[in-house]
Specification:
Elements: H1 2-12, E1 23-32, E2 38-47, E3 57-64, E4 67-79, E5 108-115, E6 130-137, E7 152-159, E8 176-177, E9 184-186, E10 190-194, E11 197-198, E12 204-209, E13 213-215, E14 218-219, E15 245-249, E16 255-259, E17 264-276, E18 279-293, E19 302-303, E20 315-319, E21 325-332, E22 345-351, E23 373-375, E24 380-383, E25 385-392, E26 409-419, E27 428-438, E28 446-452, E29 459-464, E30 473-481, E31 489-494, E32 501-504, E33 515-522, E34 529-530, E35 537-538, E36 551-559, E37 564-571, E38 575-583, E39 588-596, E40 599-606, E41 613-621, E42 626-633
Parallel strand pairs: 9-18, 20-27
Antiparallel strand pairs: 1-2, 1-18, 2-5, 3-4, 3-6, 4-5, 6-7, 7-18, 8-11, 10-16, 12-17, 13-14, 15-16, 17-18, 19-21, 21-25, 22-24, 22-26, 23-25, 26-27, 28-29, 29-32, 30-31, 30-33, 33-34, 33-35, 36-37, 37-40, 38-39, 38-41, 41-42
C-alpha cells in the first residue's frame, strides 16, 4: 500500500487528467458535518487488468451556481477481489489485482476520494436539483451492452430542494451504501445481495434500476443493449437460458435476487432516493459491473429464516416499542474445499446503521440508542457452521427517528452476508432483516349502552375498557353531536383506562336527540394518536344517522301482585338492549340487559316488591334506539 501511494503521488506530478481504463462502477454521495458544512465522497471501482493511471486529486463537476467544481483527494485504494481459503495454487486458485491480467475474471480495485469540508451557496436548489458528477473514459467490455470499451462512464448524485430551505447550512445527508458491492459470483445457483442503502437522517428510501450514463443527461441508448437486456433488466433471464430467473429489485429494501446459468459481465445501476415528509430530497446511484464466472461444484451456505412462515430470503417482523428481540442466525456448509479434504469455513458479516460500536455496544455507535448487537460480534467464522444472536430492544425513540417522522411504521434494515471460503469465488448469500416498528395505537373501546336520567335528561355512557399490554394508553375522549348531519365535538376525556362509564350533563336527552362515540388516544410520548371511532349510540328513533331501524314498543305493564314487568316490542333486527326502571326521584329500581330477536318480543321481568308510585320505564339498544314511558302504580 505504501509503495502504491508513493507511485500515486509521483504520478500526480505527471498525469492530472487520466483515470484508469476498465471502469467497473462507482458512486458519489455527501454528508453534513456538525458545523453545517459538507463533505463529498466518491468511490470508483476498476478492473485490475486495466492500466494504473490514477489521480491523487480530481474535480467533480456541479451545477451549483458559482461552484463549478469540487476538489477531491485520493484517500485510499483497496483490492476488493473475492477472498477465499489461503491455500496455495493451483489447488486453491485466487483472484487479486497482482495476478489479474484478463478482463472480467474477478480482480477489482477500489479508489476512495473525499473532499475537504466546504460550504455550498446560500441558495435553494431548483426543482430539477443540483447535480454533482464525474465522467471519464473508458468502460470495461461487457455482455449486456455493445461497444462499451469506447464509451465514457458517468457518476452522479442529485440534491433537491426541501421547503425552500437554502443549502447553507447543510441540513440533509444524502443516502449512502453500507455494503461493499458484489462484483463476482458464479453461475448455477440463486443469488441474493443488497447494497444496503441507508439514510443517516432516517428519511424514507426507494430503490429502482437506473440507466447507465455516458454524460450529463445521456443514457446509453437502448439500441446498444444486446437481445434480452435493458437497463431495468440488466442480468441474464430466461431468454438467455431457460433456468435463469431474471433479476428482481425490491423497491423498499434494495434486495436484488436472481439465478443465472449464463456467464459474462453485466453493467447494472441502482438508484437510491430519499423522501422526507413525502418530498424527494436526494438521489445517489451505484453502478457496478457484475462478473458471473462458470459454475463449480460448490454451493453457498444454507441459512434458516429466523421467523416462522417467512420466505427463505425475506426476513421481516413487526414489533412495538419495548419488544425484546433475540434472533439466532445460523449458517451451515458441510461441503469440502477444492482439495476434497478440508472442510469449508463459514463467515458471517453484517451491516446496518442501527448496529452499535463493534456490534457489541448497545449505548453507542448508532444514531438512536439502544443499539442492536450481535453475540458473538461479527465478522464471525466457524468450521462448517457459524452462529450469532441478533439482539435489540427498540423503544419509543426509534419511532421518532428521522426528520419529522410521524408515520405509523418505521422500517429498520440490517443486512447479513453468509459466505464460505471456496476458491476462487466463495459461495455467498445475503439476507435482509427488516424490523418494522409500529406505533402502539390502541383500538377504540366498545360502547355497550347508555341510560338517560328521567328527570334531568343527562346521558350516562357505558363501555368495555380496552386492554393495554403495550402500556400505551393515554385517555378516552367522548364525542357528542345533536344533529344527524352535524359534526362531533369532544365534550370530555377520561384518563383512567379502567373507567367504564361517563355521565354527560350538557344535554337533556329527554327532549333532544343525540349521537355519541368514543375514541382512544394512545402511543408514545410526543406522538400520541387517536384510534378510529368506536361504534355510535343514539336516542334518535331512526338510529345512527339513519343507519339502524327502530324498535317499536307495543305495551308495558307492571303487575304489583305478581311483582313482574311485562314488555312487548317489535324489533326489525337482532339487538341487545338495556331495560331500566327509575323511581320518580331518579334512583334505579331495576336494570337488566336482554337480547332481542327479529320480530315480536314479549318479556316478563321480575321486580322486587314494587310500591305504589310513579315510575319511569326506559329501554335503550345497541341499535341506538331509545323509548321511555311513565308508569303509575297504584
Amino acid at each position: 500500500m505504501k509503495k502504491l501511494i508513493a507511485v500515486l503521488f509521483f504520478s500526480m506530478m505527471v498525469v492530472q487528467q487520466a483515470m484508469p481504463s476498465h471502469y467497473m462502477g462507482g458512486e458519489i454521495y455527501w454528508e453534513c458535518v456538525s458545523d453545517g458544512r459538507y463533505v463529498f465522497h466518491m468511490r470508483v471501482y476498476q478492473e485490475c487488468a486495466g492500466v494504473l493511471y490514477p489521480l491523487v486529486t480530481l474535480n467533480i463537476i456541479t451545477t451549483v451556481p458559482g461552484m463549478q467544481t469540487i476538489l477531491m483527494t485520493l484517500i485510499d485504494t483497496n483490492d476488493i477481489s473475492p477472498v477465499c481459503y489461503p491455500g496455495s495454487p493451483p489447488v486453491f486458485p485466487h483472484l487479486d489485482c497482482e495476478t489479474t491480467t484478463i478482463s472480467n475474471t474477478g480482480g477489482i480495485r477500489e479508489w476512495i476520494y473525499r473532499s475537504d469540508t466546504l460550504v455550498l451557496p446560500s441558495l435553494i436548489p431548483p426543482a430539477t436539483g443540483w447535480y454533482f458528477y464525474y465522467t471519464n473514459c473508458c468502460r470495461n467490455p461487457c455482455s449486456n451492452i455493445s461497444g462499451t470499451t469506447s464509451m465514457s462512464w458517468f457518476l452522479q448524485a442529485v440534491m433537491y430542494p426541501f421547503h425552500n430551505r437554502p443549502a447553507n447550512p447543510c441540513y440533509d445527508n444524502s443516502p449512502a451504501f453500507a455494503e461493499k458491492p458484489v462484483f463476482v459470483t458464479q453461475a448455477g445457483y440463486h443469488l441474493s445481495y443488497n447494497h444496503n442503502g441507508y439514510d443517516p437522517d432516517g428519511d424514507s428510501l426507494v430503490f429502482s434500476w437506473a440507466p447507465p450514463m455516458t454524460g450529463m443527461g445521456t443514457p446509453i441508448p437502448g439500441t446498444f443493449y444486446n437481445p434480452g437486456y435493458a437497463f431495468n433488466s440488466p442480468l441474464p433471464g430466461p431468454w438467455h437460458h431457460p433456468s435463469n430467473d431474471p433479476a428482481q429489485l425490491n423497491p423498499y429494501t434494495g434486495q436484488i435476487v436472481f439465478s443465472s446459468f449464463t456467464t459474462g459481465a453485466f453493467v447494472t445501476k441502482v438508484c437510491c432516493q430519499t423522501y422526507r415528509a413525502g418530498i424527494l430530497t436526494a438521489e445517489v446511484y451505484r453502478e457496478i459491473q457484475m462478473v458471473i464466472l462458470p459454475m463449480t461444484n460448490n454451493h453457498p451456505p444454507g441459512v434458516l429464516a429466523p421467523f416462522p412462515n417467512n420466505l427463505y430470503d425475506h426476513w421481516a417482523d413487526t414489533v412495538y416499542p419495548g419488544t425484546v428481540i433475540n434472533l439466532p442466525l445460523q449458517a451451515d456448509d458441510l461441503e469440502l474445499l477444492n482439495d476434497g479434504i478440508t472442510p469449508q469455513s463459514v463467515l458471517i458479516t453484517a451491516s446496518g446503521v442501527q448496529f452499535g460500536t463493534a456490534y457489541s455496544n448497545t449505548l453507542s455507535g448508532c444514531p438512536e440508542p439502544p443499539c442492536a448487537i450481535l453475540t458473538p460480534p461479527v465478522p464471525l467464522s466457524g468450521l462448517s457452521t457459524a452462529v450469532t444472536i441478533f439482539s435489540w430492544e427498540p423503544d419509543c425513540s426509534h419511532l421518532s427517528y428521522g426528520y419529522s417522522n410521524y408515520d405509523e411504521y418505521v422500517d429498520y434494515q440490517f443486512v447479513f452476508t453468509f459466505s464460505d471460503d471456496y476458491c476462487p469465488v466463495p459461495g455467498r448469500v445475503t439476507r435482509t432483516l427488516r424490523i418494522i416498528m409500529k406505533d402502539p395505537v390502541l383500538p377504540p373501546p366498545l360502547l355497550d349502552s347508555f341510560s338517560i336520567h328521567p328527570l334531568t335528561g343527562h346521558v350516562t355512557l357505558h363501555w368495555t375498557p380496552v386492554t393495554d399490554t403495550l402500556y400505551a394508553f393515554d385517555s378516552y375522549h367522548i364525542f357528542f353531536k345533536d344533529q344527524p348531519g352535524g359534526s362531533y365535538s369532544v365534550v370530555d376525556s377520561v384518563y383512567n383506562i379502567n373507567q367504564s362509564s361517563f355521565t354527560y350533563t350538557g344535554i337533556n336527552a329527554n327532549t333532544q336527540p343525540f349521537w355519541c362515540m368514543l375514541k382512544c388516544r394512545s402511543g408514545c410520548p410526543g406522538r400520541l394518536k387517536f384510534s378510529a371511532p368506536s361504534n355510535v349510540l343514539s336516542n334518535y328513533a331512526t338510529g345512527t344517522d339513519g343507519m339502524y331501524p327502530p324498535i317499536h314498543l307495543h305495551h308495558v305493564f307492571m303487575d304489583a301482585e305478581a311483582a313482574t314487568l311485562t314488555v312487548s316490542m317489535q324489533s326489525s333486527e337482532y339487538a341487545r338492549c338495556r331495560i331500566l326502571i327509575y323511581s320518580a326521584l331518579g334512583s334505579v329500581i331495576t336494570e337488566r340487559d336482554i337480547n332481542l330477536v327479529q320480530g315480536l318480543n314479549t318479556l316478563a321481568i321480575p321486580l322486587a316488591a314494587p310500591r305504589p308510585g310513579l315510575y319511569f320505564f326506559s329501554i335503550q339498544s345497541n341499535a341506538c334506539c331509545m323509548h321511555q314511558k311513565c308508569i303509575l302504580l297504584r
